[in-house]
Design a protein that fits this description.
Number of strands: 4
Structural class: alpha+beta
Helix content: 55-70%
Strand content: 5-15%
Length: 162
């Protein structure tokens, strides 16, 4: 027994001897909540869980809190989560990226939205922060379509139009 429960039990014994029932009920309630916490009383846990859900619902009803939470979540994801396609499968992977700069690392234009471009699927931390137009261009250059485009360009540039 803990020191607190021993003291409460002493109070209960002395109150029984004195015949004070109201004070006795208060001590018994205090003791029951302590033992419920210690022994994992399911009713107590369920009541606490319901109270927690009510507080969460009340908080989520507040638009300021919702906006703050969504902004924190978005910032965390931009900093730590990489959304990529590996072997044709779309994945969200936790990656340690370099800090996000203010401008595109390829064209040096200041852009509000930069995306992380990586080139090695085995080491996703290697990459560049690029604006959307640069990222689209680099993805095209790395794809098989770029090689086909080069072949078609050479093929059709050799034809002489009459």
């Amino acid at each position: 027994m803990t020191k607190v429960t021993e003291e409460i039990e002493k109070q209960i014994r002395s109150l029984k001897e004195q015949g004070k029932s109201y004070e006795l009920i208060g001590c018994l309630l205090k003791l029951s909540t302590l033992t419920a916490r210690r022994h994992g009383n399911l009713e107590y846990k369920e009541r606490r869980r319901e109270e927690s859900k009510k507080r969460r619902r009340k908080r989520m009803g507040n638009p300021e809190y919702r906006n703050w939470r969504n902004k924190r979540k978005r910032d965390y994801n931009r900093k730590n989560i990489l959304h990529t396609t590996i072997n044709g499968e779309s994945k969200n992977i936790k990656v340690k990226k370099r800090p996000r700069p203010e401008e595109c690392e390829l064209c040096n234009r200041s852009q509000p939205r930069l995306s992380w471009h990586h080139w090695d699927d085995s080491n996703l931390g290697l990459g560049l922060w690029l604006c959307i137009p640069c990222h689209t261009g680099v993805e095209f250059l790395e794809s098989s379509r770029a090689a086909k485009y080069s072949e078609l360009k050479i093929k059709y540039s050799e034809l002489v139009l009459d």
